[in-house]
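Anyone up for a design puzzle?
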């Protein structure tokens, strides 16, 4: 039985009240949080946190970690299968290299879980996956697989295929390809239920969990009109779980998203406005969305912002007026909820995965550093 006792942890609750607690971890789960002195059981590793700040492990719910590898060049770039525009049968898990050096960067930054998946050059890119950031066997790092089906609107698919006069040349073409796939899947599902399918179709099988509302539709959309198109298509096919990815202009349709309970995985924001869709990017858009009642998770879109910049994005949001408590929520609890893994990650609570980041100062102070990262109850980084 593996156990770990963290003594003298500085925790802050939702009312910004500060407490010193002891956290007992067993078999990778948080078993007890108390201000009482805990009995040190045999074979329990004991670590004095020395009243440093303790947060849930940080979560980035939109990356290409391990799929676009660092330090390898073109051979390590696996995010876009541009042989054809509609590839729902691709699985991000098949392209992730857990030995990518960026995983170590994530751990050093206190990031314990990410969503990684296909890129946005295809209209339908494939399935993405939520994984822990420490390990060498990707199948043993899974938190949830799949967590969504990736679709993409706007410039990327049109520039990839339209330049060669292939569909999609226009935004209408992009929407039509998505509708065609979903309609074919509906017909396939009906025939399958009647026992009329003689041969399985891997492409359509990949869409069934989406149309049965078992996974989310993850829509790459920067412009406001593309965001509304994503909502329109989701409504047409009775898709209840939609996440807007990037959402550069989401603040322009914030009430529309709020009324439909559609969250935004917002970012990256530490990039230049290198294409038309980014011209209205602004640092306080996340604050506008949150103030309106839209659930927001801050993202890096690694490697477009490096994975270790996740906390920097939250600090920047604080500088624009977002409360520190909400900024932390946007890189812990909110992404956990968007990934539909909020029952096991994103909080320090009894029964949750023991994913913890320890800081030597206020986590929203740029001068503070991560001094310890714990994943599944195991210390994977330690500078305490």
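Challenge accepted. My sequence:
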């Amino acid at each position: 039985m593996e156990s770990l006792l963290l003594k003298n942890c500085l925790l802050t609750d939702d009312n910004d009240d500060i407490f010193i607690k002891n956290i007992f971890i067993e078999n990778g789960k948080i078993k007890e949080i108390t201000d009482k002195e805990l009995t040190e059981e045999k074979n329990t590793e004991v670590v004095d946190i020395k009243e440093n700040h303790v947060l849930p492990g940080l979560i980035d719910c939109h990356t290409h970690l391990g799929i676009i590898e660092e330090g390898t060049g073109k051979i390590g770039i696996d995010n876009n299968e541009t042989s054809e525009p509609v590839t729902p049968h691709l699985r991000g898990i098949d392209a992730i290299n857990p030995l990518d050096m960026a995983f170590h960067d994530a751990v050093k930054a206190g990031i314990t879980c990410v969503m990684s998946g296909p890129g946005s050059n295809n209209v339908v890119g494939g399935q993405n996956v939520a994984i822990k950031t420490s390990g060498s066997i990707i199948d043993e790092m899974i938190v949830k697989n799949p967590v969504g089906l990736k679709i993409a609107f706007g410039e990327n698919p049109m520039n990839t295929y339209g330049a060669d006069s292939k569909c999609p040349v226009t935004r209408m073409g992009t929407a039509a390809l998505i509708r065609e796939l979903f309609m074919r899947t509906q017909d396939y599902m009906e025939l399958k239920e009647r026992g009329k399918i003689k041969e399985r179709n891997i492409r359509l099988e990949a869409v069934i969990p989406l149309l049965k509302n078992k996974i989310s539709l993850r829509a790459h959309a920067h412009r406001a009109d593309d965001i509304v198109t994503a909502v329109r298509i989701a409504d047409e096919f009775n898709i209840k779980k939609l996440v807007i990815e990037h959402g550069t202009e989401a603040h322009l349709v914030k009430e529309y998203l709020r009324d439909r309970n559609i969250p935004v995985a917002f970012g990256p924001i530490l990039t230049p406005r290198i294409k038309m869709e980014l011209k209205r990017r602004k640092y306080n858009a996340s604050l506008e969305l949150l103030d309106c009642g839209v659930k927001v998770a801050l993202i890096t879109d690694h490697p477009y912002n490096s994975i270790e910049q996740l906390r920097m994005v939250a600090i920047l949001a604080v500088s624009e007026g977002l409360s520190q408590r909400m900024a932390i929520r946007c890189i812990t609890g909110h992404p956990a909820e968007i990934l539909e893994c909020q029952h096991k990650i994103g909080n320090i609570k009894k029964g949750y995965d023991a994913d913890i980041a320890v800081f030597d100062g206020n986590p929203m102070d740029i001068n503070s550093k991560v001094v310890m990262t714990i994943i599944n109850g195991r210390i994977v980084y330690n500078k305490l």
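A detail worth pointing out: The chain has a mean pLDDT of 96.
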